[in-house]
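thought: fold this chain, then report.
action: predict
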Amino acid sequence: MARPELVPAVVSSSFLVGLLLTLLGSIRGALAERLSISELRAGGMLAPMFIALIPLMLVSGYLIDRWGPQWVLLGGSFVSALGLSALALARRYLAAWGAASLIGAGTAGLSSSCMVLMPWAFFPEDNAGSANLGTVFFGIGALVTPSVAGGLVRWLGLQRTLGIFGLVALVPALSASFGTQAAFQVGAAGNPQTDVFHQPLTWLLGAALLLYMPLETTLGTKTAALMGELAAGERYQSLCLPLFWTAFLTSRLGAAFLDLPAGVNPWEVLILATVSAVALGNLAGAVGQGYVFLGVVVLGAALGPIFPTLIGILFDHTAMSQRGMAYGAIFAIGTVGNLLLTPLIGVLARNYGVRPSLWVAMLLALLLAAASLLLGLWLQMAWRQAH
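observation:
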């Protein structure tokens, strides 16, 4: 049975994770000016954030499985607020690096706890549907942050803007503090699973996320840049990102209510990854505005449900008392892809143009389809052995 009292904490945490993962890139110009460094170096502030995420996703997952997600969510909220406050006060590059690491640590706690809570907040019998619905709010946070942050920086300056976001970061803690401790006890058994990296499912899902995360992180901006490369004009270029994110969130919201059988999920990811690869190939070779707009919409719609569906597969095959550690492990593996492959796509786009970078993204989508095929075959084999 769903627990409605969890919804405010889950929604606010998911939104905040989207905000935090896009904020540093949104303010890199103002941050570069504050620290007297290049914009490229300021954009590198994502590195300490992702480096902190990798081990702390595992730590957060362990703590969730041992004591439940409430305290991890509270801690993630407070640490995120602390990191944003430290970044607002930073005057040196090293101090800003440390603040970005704190933001990464807070993001780890928030992401782990809200994902584990999503099925209990929405659809306890449908893990993939719950993850799709819950991560819609992540997408909204990622969508609105660049424009809101840019407007606030121009109006109030960087320090006050980060102070405002620091206050926003406390909203999940406030939401969680109103819930009863019993409502947040969703499987903690005091005996966390520590051998997750011995499980084939961990590596199969982790490989899928390693290939997927760079696609989601970079493609929103690359589609807009493609319109500029086609000399379509600023008016049409500005339509590209809203089109992509509208399709992305709409498909994710629709997938939340499809209620497909759990065994279909790996094949759903296979189909969506293949469609994404075709859309990326069409975008890389597009010669007209109509083809670009169509490719952007198809790409957004295909990518939208992939991440939450993979999380649904994980939770379908993981005991409730072990989901925190399992999610932390596959997210940590996926973050390695964000740390290594996302900059590679960016370098290709800067040095050789957007089209070659889209061919690389297409290759990632094809590899994601292959990983999904292996995942589906392995799950079928495991089911036959069990029966």
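thought: worth noting. Residues 196-386 form a domain with the Growth Hormone; Chain: A; fold (CATH 1.20.1250.20).
final: tokens above.
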